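Sanity check record (used in CI):
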Amino acid sequence: MNEEPASRHEQFLRHYSAHEPAIRAFLRRLVPLRTDVPDVMQEVALVLWK
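Expected output for RNA polymerase sigma-70 region 2 domain-containing protein:
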């Protein structure tokens, strides 16, 4: 845990950006209303960040 906060942030963004399309596609199949997908994506990002 000696990484600088900016480095951790950049690493998270790199990984999240790489996997975001697959996560979004999965959620589209899982979430009944497509309009709810962005909200669920935000929740996913928060959980992953923690």
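DSSP finds two helices and no strands in the chain. If this sentence no longer matches the regenerated tokens, the check is flagged for review.
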